[in-house]
Amino acid sequence: MKAFFLRIIAWHKKNNPGFLDRLNPGIESYDVLNFFTTNSLVIPNELIELYSLSNGSTIPFGDQYDLFHLFPGYYLMPFQEATHIYRLKKMDELWSPDWFPIFSNGGGDYYAIKCSKEEKFPIIGFLVGGIEPEIEYTNLPSMLKTIADCFDSGAFYMTDERYLEILIDKEVVISRSNNQGLPRWN
User: Of 34, 86, 102, 111, which has the fewest beta carbons less than 10 angstroms from its beta carbon?
Assistant: First the structure.
């Protein structure tokens, strides 16, 4: 999984170097383990590894969220922000208490990891507006591989105005290949 994350960072280093200044260093696994234990959640090792690589992007008040996106539309939330959102969202009738948010668009949409022992930690896409949440990625490594592959292939790209955009047809082909069997990509 680390290799996929580093491929994404390498793309930003080459194409969007200012992004790296906005990325926080990783945190100790103790912080993550303590929260998950206290909240009776099963902790995926991949999540510990991700937060050891980076503690997301802290967005100063008034800054554009677009400047902080790890991939089109979404930034990696700092762990403290993710725990705050978790506490708020677990009361939402469309949110399952075993979902832990990882990525946010800053407007109420999230990618969350399902933290239960019955599943292999799939990634759920949660959109505001009452749209039914669905599994979009098999797990966190497949999500990061998909993102890295999308950057490498040009499915995700930087516009002249410095926004990350998507070539949907390419994204679907890559996502389908990396997340086989998920209805989201069929």
Answer: 34
Question: Residue with structure tokens 């979404």?
Answer: 74
Is-contact 4 147, C-beta < 8 A? Answer: yes
| Reported pTM | 0.95
* Structure-block tokens of residue 2: 């680390």
In this prediction, residue 141 carries a pLDDT of 97
Task: Give the Cα separation of 64 and 149 in Å (integer).
Answer: 26
CA 113 to chain centre: 9
Amino acid making up residue 60: P
Distance between CA atoms of 77 and 54, rounded to whole angstroms? 10
Question: Which portions of the chain are predicted below pLDDT 70?
Answer: 62, 130
Q: What is the pLDDT of residues 60-84, one digit of tens each?
A: 776 777 778 999 999 999 999 999 9
Whole-angstrom Cα distance, residue 15 to residue 158? Answer: 7
Q: Which of 100, 109, 94, 57 is nearest to 82 (CA)?
A: 100
First to last CA, the chain: 25
Give the span between the Cα atoms of 25 and 169, in whole angstroms: 34
Rg (CA), the chain: 16
Q: Name the residue ranges covered by the structural domains of the chain.
A: 2-177
